[in-house]
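Please decode residue identities from the backbone states below.
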């Protein structure tokens, strides 16, 4: 009996420390085709800042990360990204969303001329807490969706030229992906849905 209990505890510890399941991110299970100068990277680095990063921080600002995975596809004209961060508990995930909203306000309009960039955001009714955001730069931009479900935050984004009104129709693909991910997140016991 003691051996079985010890094996069960060891197995549970291995499962908890082994990270997120392979194929957890949609881009991971369906990688984009490589063409020309394209790059595609998947990382489990806990040091990576949130991919929706309007203040362009080089290091993460949130604490309490338990597991993380990010995928980034870049080509000459486009980029797509996904990131899933599972926190130690719901409070850390709530704090990460508050920090993200604060950054979107703090860096809403920065710089002048060719160095100017702007970010806009609006609430989104997906998961326990969600938002949609858009950023405009001199020669490009991005749009993204960030949702919290339990103790996890999921961010998905792509190249775009968003308007300040952030019409929901332009976010349909990202919103659909975020809704599907909220279901997958709840399959993780660490997410505490």
């Amino acid at each position: 009996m003691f051996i079985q209990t010890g094996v069960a505890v060891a197995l549970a510890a291995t499962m908890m420390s082994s990270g997120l399941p392979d194929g957890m991110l949609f881009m991971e299970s369906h990688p984009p085709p490589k063409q020309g100068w394209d790059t595609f990277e998947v990382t489990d680095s806990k040091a990576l800042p949130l991919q929706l990063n309007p203040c362009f921080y080089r290091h993460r600002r949130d604490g309490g990360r338990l597991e993380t995975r990010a995928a980034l596809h870049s080509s000459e004209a486009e980029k797509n990204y996904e990131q899933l961060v599972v926190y130690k508990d719901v409070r850390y995930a709530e704090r990460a969303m508050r920090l993200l909203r604060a950054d979107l306000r703090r860096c809403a309009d920065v710089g002048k001329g060719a160095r100017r960039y702007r970010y806009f955001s609006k609430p989104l009714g997906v998961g326990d807490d969600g938002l949609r955001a858009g950023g405009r730069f001199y020669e490009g931009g991005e749009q993204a969706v960030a949702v919290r479900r339990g103790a996890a935050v999921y961010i998905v984004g792509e190249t775009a030229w968003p308007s300040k009104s952030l019409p929901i129709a332009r976010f349909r693909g990202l919103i659909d992906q975020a809704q599907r991910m909220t279901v997958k997140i709840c399959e993780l016991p660490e997410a505490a849905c």
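Observation: Strands lie at 39-43, 65-74, 79-87, 109-110, 117-123, 129-137, 140-149, 152-159.
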